[in-house]
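User: I'm curious whether this sequence folds into something compact or stays loose and floppy. Could you predict its structure so I can see for myself?
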Amino acid sequence: MFVSAKTLSAIFVLASTTIAWSSLVPATPQEKAIEYDRTIAATRRFDAPEAGQAVAVDDQHFYAIANSIIAKYDRETGEKVAVWKSDSERPLRHLNSGIVRDGKLYCANSNFPQWPEASSIEVWDTETMTHIDSHSLGICAEGSLTWIEPIKGGWYAVFANYSKKVNDDPLAKSHRSTQLVRFDERWRRTHGWVFPKSVLDRFDPHSCSGGGFAADGKLYCTGHDFGEVYQLEFPKAGSVLVLTETIGAPITGQGIAFDADLLWGVDRAKRQVVVSKFGLEK
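Assistant: Here's the prediction. I'll summarize afterward.
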């Protein structure tokens, strides 16, 4: 096949332009290394096959949470003492973060990746690991519920959205629509905040998977993938949370739990629950 000099010249120019342009395209957030304000190390690791979504903790046990299974472990010996599994009467398929309050384990639950998105709060008695209550939020315009924390007079909850296409939703939002919402005790929305771009870039293409308030009263959140914990403050004005510290941690994102000065998290790849000294400011 004959190719003219003019055509070859055009191809060369196009190739050169493509190479030059590709060198200017920034790496994706996943490819970028970032500098941490500080880094914490693991002090203990427990093997737990259920450590896929999150971990919750009380003074005697920790609870490894998978999509449809929760296992209760002795926090000193690592011995598994009880297991709860979903069944036809309680067909839970996507449990997320959990938190223990007054002998009850509260877990965020959603129908992810189905559409339309529906979520609920599921409750277990930690002594017997019996499922004792369910509060359905139904279809949630905010997204999929990933973590909750009961507070005096209400709840905090995060609703995730994803840039990665997960279903056939024609009006799917991106990870930038992830938001923290405050509800009163009757589950009426009273406040809402979005995450700053610097944190959203680390969530991309997933979302906020874990979070809560530590003993210092500050808010900390995690994404879906990275061993990072983000300390956030509520803004003095407006709706965007303020990033104050990024902490490197020996976890793989997902749901976390605080116990005094300890951070509990999961290492999904190793199927382990990881404990770290968090170093809270006094």
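Summary: DSSP finds two helices and 21 strands in the chain. The radius of gyration is 22 Å.
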